[in-house]
Design goal:
By secondary structure, the protein is α/β, with parallel strands linked by helices. Among the domains are: 2-202, P-loop containing nucleotide triphosphate hydrolases (Rossmann fold), CATH 3.40.50.300; 441-604, no CATH class. The protein has 27 helices and eight strands. It has helices at residues 14-22, 62-76, 92-108, 120-125, 132-139, 154-162, 181-195, 199-213, 218-236, 239-257, 264-281, 284-300, 302-315, 324-329, 334-340, 347-356, 366-376, 389-413, 418-423, 439-473, 484-496, 503-511, 518-529, 539-546, 550-562, 567-577, 580-604, and strands at 2-8, 39-43, 46-50, 80-88, 112-118, 143-145, 382-383, 387-388. It has a six-stranded mixed sheet, with helices on both faces. Strands 7-8 form a two-stranded antiparallel ribbon. It comes from Psychrosphaera saromensis. One of its GO terms (cellular component) is plasma membrane. InterPro entries: Fe2_transport_prot_B_C, FeoB_GTPase, G_FEOB_dom, Gate_dom, GTP-bd, P-loop_NTPase. One of its GO terms (molecular function) is ferrous iron transmembrane transporter activity.
Length: 605
C-alpha cells in the first residue's frame, strides 16, 4: 500500500489534519508532546502515517528521538510515496526549521515532499495573504494552504493527494544552500520575513491574555481557580447524569427480572449483573466529564501556560514544568501519562515523574471516590453557601495524591549529585496560540473515554462479579457468611481488621488489585447478595445503612489514593524503565504506604 508520512512541529494542527483526512478520531491537543505514538489511517488507496510533533531532527527528548528514528526509517521504505510537512501559517519561522530538515531527508531518499500551511483562516482573519507560488519556488516543493479546523482548503488538498498532483513537481532542493544549523535558521528567518504575517500581530492578543494568566501573582490564583473548577465539575456536573444512569439501570433490572421469576437466574441478574456491573456503570459519566474539562484545557493552549507556571514550584521537588502535563494526564489514566513523560529531557526528572504518576487520582479511582464521598458527605451540603462539599472533598483527595507525589519526588531527587545537577538542561517550552477547542474531536474524545473505560474495566468487573456471586451463592441455602466466599473472607479478615474493615471489604479490596474500579462492582455484588434487591444500583445507601465509621471510610479513601492497584500501569512502567524489580517494588511500596495511612486514619479519627 502506498504510504504518506505526515510530519511537523508540535501545535501545528497536524493531528487534526490527520483526523480530517482519514476520518479517525485520534486525540488532538494544543500543547507539545501530546502525541507520543505513531498513528496510521486509510485514505482511499493510501495509508497516512502521523508522526509525533518534532522541533528538529537533532533530538532532545525520547519522544523526538522515537519520531526521528521512525521517520528516517519510513522515508527509506519503498512503499513511502510522499512526505507531507505541516506548517503553522501564523508562526512560519518556527515551523520551517524542522520542515527544511525533513525536506533534506526526503530529497536524500528521492521522495516527494509537499508543504501544508495550516491555520490559513487565522491568517485571513488578520487581513494577510501568503504568496503560495513564491514560497513554493523558494522551497522547491508544492505549498498548499488550508485550515484543518474550519475545513478551508481541505477538499482541494485531499483531491490533490488522490490525483497525485504533486508528481508534476520534480524532486528538488530549496534555492538556498542548507548544510549547517545556522543556514537552516537563517533561511527560515528570511522566508518568514518575506512571506509570513507580522508576528507582532499574532502575539498581540496572546500577550494580552498572558499578561494576566502568566502574572507572577494573579496567574497563580487563576491556575488554582481553574484546577478547583476542574475537580468541582467532576462531581457537580456529573451528578444529574449519574442519577439518570442509576435510574435506567434500576428500571431495566426491574423490567428484565419480571420475566425470570424467582430462582437462580433472577438472583444472578440482580446480584452479579445489575448489582455488580451496574454499580460500576453509574460512575462512567464522571470519567467523561473529567475528559471534557481536561480536553478544554488542552485544546485551548492553556496547559503549556500551566506547565510554565508550575515549573518553579515543581523544581523545588526535583521535577520540571514539563512534569505537569503527564501529572494532569494521569488524572485520566496513568498509562498514557507515563508515556507522555518521554517529553521530559532530563532522564532523572523523567524517571521521578514516571514513578510518581501513579499517585495521581486516575479515572479508575473515580467510582471508589464517588461511592465513599456520597456515603459520608450529603449532596445538599455546601461550604460558604456556594461550594458543594462533595466537590470540595474530591478536590482534597486529588490534592492529597498530588502532595504525596511531590513529597516522594523530593525524597527521590535528594540524592542528585552535583555532576547530574550541572548536566540538567534548561526548561524550554513553546507557548502555543490560544484557540477555541474544536467541538468534533473533543466530543469524540469524551465519548471514547467512556467507551474505552467500559471496554477495559467491564470484562474484568463482570468476571469478578460472577466469581464472587458463585462463591457467595454456594453451597445452596447457606447464608453469605457461611458460603465459600464467606470462608475466604473470614480467612483474610485479620489483615483488614486493623483498618476497621470486615471480610466483605477485604474481598473487594483483594479483587481490586487487578484494577481499582473492581472494588465498586465487587462490593455491589456482595451487598446485593445480602438482600438489597430493592435498591439494586443504590450501593451508597446500602453502605450508609450498614454504618461504616467515618475514620474507616477516610482510611479507605486514603488507601485508594495511594495504592498502586493497576497491573497495566506496572507493565507500562516496566516497559518504559526497562526495570521489572523497580516497577514491582513500587507496587509493593505504595501498597504498604496505603495500608499505613488507612490504619492511622482508622485509629485516630
Amino acid at each position: 500500500m502506498k504510504k504518506i508520512l505526515l510530519v511537523g512541529k508540535p501545535n501545528c494542527g497536524k493531528s487534526l489534519l490527520f483526523n480530517q483526512l482519514t476520518g479517525l478520531r485520534q486525540k488532538v491537543a494544543n500543547y507539545p508532546g501530546v502525541t507520543v505514538e505513531i498513528k496510521s489511517g486509510r485514505m482511499a488507496e493510501y495509508e497516512i502515517i502521523d508522526f509525533p510533533g518534532t522541533y528538529s531532527l537533532n533530538t532532545l527528548s525520547i519522544d523526538e528521538k522515537v519520531a526521528v528514528e521512525q521517520l528516517t526509517s519510513r522515508v527509506k521504505d519503498e512503499e513511502t510515496e510522499l512526505v507531507v510537512c505541516v506548517l503553522d501559517a501564523t508562526r512560519l519561522e518556527r515551523s520551517l526549521v524542522f520542515a527544511l530538515q525533513a525536506q533534506q531527508l526526503a530529497i536524500k531518499e528521492n521522495k516527494q515532499i509537499v508543504f501544508v500551511l495550516n491555520f490559513i483562516d487565522e491568517v485571513k482573519r488578520f487581513g494577510h495573504n501568503i504568496d503560495l507560488d513564491g514560497l513554493s519556488r523558494e522551497l522547491g516543493a508544492p505549498v498548499y494552504a488550508l485550515s484543518a479546523r474550519s475545513l478551508d482548503g481541505i477538499a482541494e488538498f485531499k483531491d490533490a493527494l488522490l490525483t497525485a498532483e504533486y508528481k508534476n513537481f520534480p524532486v528538488q532542493a530549496p534555492r538556498a544552500p542548507l548544510e549547517t544549523t545556522k543556514q537552516f535558521v537563517d533561511f527560515s528567518r528570511s522566508l518568514a520575513k518575506t512571506y509570513a504575517m507580522n508576528k507582532d500581530v499574532v502575539l498581540r492578543n496572546q500577550n494580552r491574555v498572558d499578561t494576566f494568566l502568566l502574572n507572577s501573582f494573579l496567574g497563580g490564583f487563576a491556575f488554582l481557580a481553574i484546577m478547583f473548577v476542574l475537580f468541582q465539575s467532576i462531581f457537580t456536573w456529573a451528578t444529574p447524569l449519574m442519577d439518570g444512569v442509576e435510574t435506567i439501570i434500576a428500571s431495566f433490572a426491574g423490567f428484565v427480572t419480571q420475566f425470570t421469576g424467582e430462582g437462580v437466574v433472577t438472583d444472578f441478574l440482580n446480584d452479579a449483573i445489575f448489582g455488580g456491573v451496574g454499580s460500576f456503570l453509574v460512575f462512567v459519566p464522571q470519567i467523561m466529564v473529567l475528559t471534557f474539562v481536561i480536553g478544554l484545557l488542552e485544546d485551548s493552549g492553556y496547559l503549556a501556560r500551566a506547565a510554565l507556571i508550575c515549573h518553579k514550584p515543581l523544581s523545588y521537588f526535583g521535577l520540571s514544568g514539563r512534569s505537569f502535563i503527564p501529572y494532569l494526564s494521569g488524572h485520566a489514566c496513568a498509562i498514557p501519562a507515563i508515556m507522555a513523560a518521554r517529553t521530559i529531557e532530563s532522564p532523572r526528572k523523567r524517571l521521578i515523574t514516571m514513578l510518581t504518576i501513579p499517585l495521581m487520582s486516575c479515572s479508575a479511582r473515580l467510582p471508589v471516590y464517588a461511592l465513599l464521598v456520597s456515603v459520608f458527605i450529603p449532596s445538599d451540603q455546601y461550604f460558604l453557601g456556594f461550594f458543594n462539599m462533595q466537590g470540595l472533598t474530591f478536590f482534597g483527595l486529588y490534592m492529597f495524591g498530588i502532595v504525596t507525589a511531590l513529597i516522594i519526588s523530593a525524597l527521590l531527587s535528594h540524592s542528585k549529585s552535583t555532576e547530574q545537577e550541572q548536566s540538567e538542561m534548561p526548561f524550554i517550552i513553546e507557548l502555543p496560540s490560544y484557540r477555541l477547542p474544536h467541538w468534533k474531536p473533543l466530543y469524540h474524545r469524551v465519548i471514547n473515554s467512556g467507551q474505552q473505560f467500559i471496554k477495559r474495566a467491564a470484562p474484568v468487573i463482570f468476571m469478578v462479579a460472577v466469581g464472587i456471586w458463585v462463591l457467595g451463592y454456594f453451597p445452596l441455602n447457606a447464608s453469605l457468611e457461611e458460603s465459600w466466599l464467606g470462608s475466604i473472607g473470614h480467612f483474610i479478615e485479620p489483615v483488614f481488621a486493623p483498618l476497621g474493615l470486615d471480610w466483605r471489604y477485604g474481598i473487594a479490596i483483594l479483587m481490586s488489585f487487578l484494577a481499582r474500579e473492581v472494588f465498586v462492582g465487587a462490593l455491589g455484588t456482595l451487598y446485593g447478595m445480602e438482600g438489597a434487591d430493592e435498591n439494586i444500583a443504590g450501593l451508597a445507601q446500602n453502605i450508609m445503612n450498614d454504618g461504616l465509621p467515618l475514620g474507616t471510610g477516610i482510611g479507605l479513601l486514603l488507601f485508594y489514593v495511594v495504592a498502586l492497584q493497576c497491573v497495566a500501569t506496572v507493565a507500562t512502567l516496566k516497559a518504559e524503565t526497562g526495570n521489572a524489580k523497580l516497577s514491582w517494588g513500587l507496587y509493593a511500596a505504595y501498597g504498604i504506604l496505603a495500608y499505613i495511612l488507612a490504619f492511622l486514619a482508622n485509629t485516630f479519627i
